[in-house]
Amino acid sequence: MTVPLPSLTPPEAVREQLWNEQQLAQPVAMPSFRLWRYREPAIVLGCSQRRLLAQAAGPVPVLLRQSGGGAVLTGPWMLGLSVALPADHPLARQGLVASYRWLGEALAQALRQGGVDAQALAPEVLRAMPAERRTAVDWACFGGLSPWEVLAGGRKIAGLAQVRRAHGVLLVGGVLLQPSPWRLLGEALGCAAADAQVLAATTIGAGEAIAHFDAHACALRLEQVLAATLEPQACPP
């Protein structure tokens, strides 16, 4: 019997974090972005969640990212994205919250073009929501809502985070293309089973929102929107 050799290619979630770290290792000279598709699951913790590393168990790899926010479960059900901007770029100079707006609206546009009724969450709309809706599961990225993240049918479909350094700004996000197996995330981190049920009720994958959703076409649309937005002539003065 022939035993297959292990792949020498790092998992996509590892490549993603390495790319992100490299962008801010030196001054960002010009805008760049990458989209990420994941063949296998991985858990990516926010930079303030080191304590969860000690209680992680099971076969799913656990990584720590530079940006804040809660735990993310990547896998075939998610499309990831990373955007690196020079520190003096117009889209980076807008401030911590406002710099999310263009990216949240770009994600919502790409989803709407695919038939999903998606909207970026304006700060005033978020403030009007009950506190328990704004933070349903405090340790998971998709368990809370922040300005300009994306909702579909009132449920979270895309989350955002960022890192701001002297060398530049890194914006990252994740779009749920299909339902996420939240129970896998909770079991791997030793969290309450009820949290997985809450996450399932308050999030939605694009494939749930519309039948026969084309994830590949969505990624192409998002790539086009990002490229057009980050072109120098497209940036506001």
Automatic annotation (TrEMBL):
Domain of life of the organism encoding this protein: Bacteria
Keywords assigned by UniProt, alphabetized: Ligase
Keyword Nucleotide-binding: no
Alphabetized Pfam families for the sequence: LplA-B_cat
PROSITE patterns from the UniProt entry: BPL_LPL_CATALYTIC
One Gene Ontology term of the molecular function aspect: ligase activity
This protein's record includes keyword Transmembrane helix: no
Coiled-coil ranges (or none): none
Residue stretches making up the BPL/LPL catalytic domain: 27-234
Protein name: Biotin/lipoate A/B protein ligase family protein
Upper taxonomic lineage: Bacteria, Pseudomonadati, Pseudomonadota, Betaproteobacteria, Burkholderiales
